[in-house]
Amino acid sequence: MTPQALDQVEQGTAAGSGFLSADELLAGSALRFEVAVPAALVDPARAGLAGQVRLRPLTVADLQLITRAAKANDGLVAALMVRTAVEEPRLTMAQINAMPIGLLEFLLAEVNRVSGLAMPADSLEAAAAAPIARAAHLLARQFGWTPQQIGELTLGQILLHLQLLRDEGAGGDTR
Question: How far apart are the first and last CA of the chain?
C-alpha cells in the first residue's frame, strides 16, 4: 500500500472505506439553521409565526466553556446555551434574562435539536419500551430505589430481583 493510500485509510477518506473523514465529522458545526418562532411566545395576543432566528449548533468547546462559566448556577446554563447558539439576532445576557421563560425554553429546545442533544419522541418511546428500562422502572417502583442505585446493579442482580417479584406475584413467596 502506498503512503498516500495508507494516509487515506487512516483518515477514513479511502474510496469505499465507509469511514467519515475528520472534515466530514466537523462539517456539522458550520451549519446554520433558521428557526420559525411562534408568535404566541413573543406576544400572547398574536397567532402564527413571529419571525425567525438563526441558530448554530453548539460544539464541545462551547459546552465546556458554558459548563465552566455556570459551574454553580444551573439556571445560567440554559441562558448561555441560547446566547451562544443564537446568531441572528445577537442577544445580550440582559436581553436573554428579560425574555419570557416560555420563549427561552422554546429556543433552548431548538438549540438542543440543532446541536444533536435532543432525543426524538419516537426514540424516547423506544427507549422506554426497552426491557431493561421497563425492568428499572419496575424495580424503582417496587423497592423505592433511585436510578443511581439501579444503575449499580449487575444484569444478574436485576434478573434475580425480577424473578423474585414474579414469584411473589404468582403466590410463590418463599418467606
Answer: 69
The 10s digit of each residue's pLDDT in 80-96 is 999 999 999 999 999 99
The dihedral through the CA atoms of 148, 151, 153, 157 has a sign that is: positive
Tens digit of pLDDT for each residue in 15-41? 556 888 888 888 888 889 999 999 988
C-alpha cell at 49: 409565526
70 secondary structure, DSSP code: T
Q: Which long-range contacts (CB under 8 A, 24 or more apart) does 133-142 make?
A: 135/162, 138/162, 138/165
How far are the Cα atoms of 120, 131, 145, 158, 170 from residue 137, in angstroms, in the given order?
21, 10, 9, 11, 20
Assigned C-alpha cell, 13: 477518506
Q: How far apart are CA 118 and CA 33, in angstroms?
A: 15
Q: State residue 121 phi and psi, 5-degree precision.
A: -60, -40
Q: What are the grid coordinates assigned to 57, written together? A: 449548533
Residues 104, 107, 109, 115, CA torsion sign:
negative
